[in-house]
Amino acid sequence: MTIDTEKTYGVYIHIPFCRAKCKYCAFVSSPDFSLQKAYVDTLIKEINDSPFKGGLVDTVYIGGGTPSCLFRGGLADIMCAVRYNFRVARDAEITVECNPESVSTDFIAECKDIGVTRISIGLQSSCDNVLRAIGRVHTYADYLKSAELLSHSFDNISSDIILGLPEQTSADVINSINTVTRHCSHISVYALTVEEGTPLYKSGYTPSDDDIADLYDLAYGKLSELGFNRYEVSNFALNGLESKHNKKYWECKPYIGFGVAAHGYDGERTRFMHGDGISEYIACHNAESYALTDKDLYNEYVMLRLRTEKGIMTGDFRKRFGYDFCARNAEILDRLKSEKLLVCVDGAVRISPDKMFVMNSVIEQLMLD
Known about the structure:
about 375 residues; 9-stranded mixed β-sheet; globular; alpha/beta
C-alpha cells in the first residue's frame, strides 16, 4: 500500500484492560493484567509493521478499556513507536482516556512526558448508588480528587456522563454537569444503550426512552447555559475545544486503528477491522480489510454527518459523490422540512436543533435500502 502524502491521518489505539468491567459495557476489555506486557509488545509490532507508516498524523487517541490502568511506561513505549513510524504534527491533539480510580501522579507525569494534550475521564454519575448499580469501581469523591489532580497539569479535559442509568434522577444529572464543568472544557453526554450479553441486559433492566429524552433536554439546556456548544448529538465543548480526533469519524476522514477490536478507514473505500479476542490479537495482529460499496459510502456519510450540528454540507457532498444531495432527495427533504425535522440553509442540511435526540428516525428516511 502506498501512503497518500496529501492525507492527514488520525490514530486510534485500543487498550483493553480495566480493573473491573462495568455492567453496561460491551467494549472489548479484560481485568487480566497478566496480558498487558505481551499486548503492548504486539501493539508496538503492529505499529512498526503498519502499511501507513510514514504518514502525517495530527490526532492520536488512546482509548479503551482504561489506558490509565496500564503498567507505567507502557504508554510511553506506545507513543515512542507512533512517533518513530509516523510524522506526528507538532500541534497534534494527543488524547488519553482514564478512570478516577487509576489516576495517579505517576500516570499524569507519564502523560506529560509523552506529549499528551488532552485527557478524557469517565464520571458517568455523581451518585455513588448509581455508580455501584452499574459496576463502576470509583466513587464520586474519587472523581473529584482525580479531576482536581488532572486540572493542575492539563487545560483540555473531557468527561463522560451517561443518561438512563438505574436509580438515576434529574438532580444527579444536574449535579454531574455542575461537577464536570468545574475543570472540563469538553463534555460527552451519552444515552445508555443496554447491549445484549452485558450484565445490565441479563438483569432485565430497560431504560425508558421518554425519561432519557427528558434527561437529555435537561442536560442540553444546562450545558448551553454554562457556555458549552453542542457540535455532535452527544458532545459539547467550549469554543474551539471540540475533539479533533472524534470529528474525523463524523467527517469521514482517514484514521488508523491499532489493537484488538480497533477499526480504521483510508478515507476512500477501504475499512480495516481487528477481531475481538485479546489472546488472538497477541498471536496475530493483522487486521482484515474490506471494500465499501457506493451504498455503504452514502449511508455512512449521511448518518455520520447528520449527527453533527453542521449537518451535511451540500458542496462537500457533491465533491464526494458527484451529484446534488438536495436534488436527489427533494421530495423527502420537503416533507421533513414541513414537519420541522430538518433545516436547509446556507448550503447545509441539518437536523432541527430541538430534534437532535430523535434524529435516527429522520436519518433512516434519507438512507438507501
